[in-house]
Design goal:
three-stranded mixed β-sheet; about 35% helix; 7 strands; alpha/beta; Nucleotidyltransferase, domain 5
């Protein structure tokens, strides 16, 4: 689960990471988490139309991840990886309060809570697929990540390509604030 604060910082604070479970079991776990923290959006693998439909029958509505390619990226996978990488970069002048203490200036925009052990492990082991000699000579051949132990990274990537930062709320004019009912 990811929380986004008003400054567009991403906090990965919970994960569900089990294999071999039925859709009914997974849906039960996800629905139970809603009582602890409201879920406002769920993104998933766009190639999983059948799974998305089956989860919808159980009250979990999954939006297929946005698969469009933007800027100069040759694949939506690479675009998602780059969006996550941007969040990991330290930005000057940006700070955040954690546990009521202000962090030093220049912190990233993506935080992983210590309880998300699988996401942490995958961050540490995520690798680019080695290119063959012929591929290494072809500069147009795209870099692709290894397709192993990457479920948390894929989930984060689905979020990264699909989540749209809400437009900032414009300041309300002073004369509007004087209207009856304004708090």
């Amino acid at each position: 689960m990811i929380y986004v604060d008003k400054d567009d910082n991403w906090f990965v604070f919970d994960e569900f990471y089990e294999s071999g479970k039925t859709i009914d079991y997974i849906a039960g776990v996800v629905n139970s988490k809603r009582t602890v923290s409201p879920i406002t959006a769920t993104y998933g693998d766009p190639s999983g139309a059948q799974w998305i439909q089956e989860f919808a029958q159980r009250g979990i509505y999954i939006t297929p991840a946005t698969k469009e390619v933007r800027t100069n990226f040759n694949s939506w996978v690479r675009y998602g990886i780059e969006k996550v990488a941007e969040k990991l970069k330290q930005t000057s002048g940006k700070s955040i309060s954690i546990n009521y203490k202000q962090t030093e200036k220049g912190c990233p925009g993506l935080f992983i809570f210590s309880g998300c052990t699988n996401a942490i492990r995958e961050f540490e082991t995520y690798r680019w697929k080695e290119k063959s000699v012929s591929q290494a000579q072809d500069l147009n051949e795209p870099d692709v990540p290894e397709k192993a132990n990457d479920h948390a990274m894929s989930a984060l990537r689905y979020f990264a390509v699909s989540y749209k930062t809400p437009a900032p709320i414009e300041e309300i004019p002073d004369d509007t604030k004087k209207m009856e009912g304004w708090y």
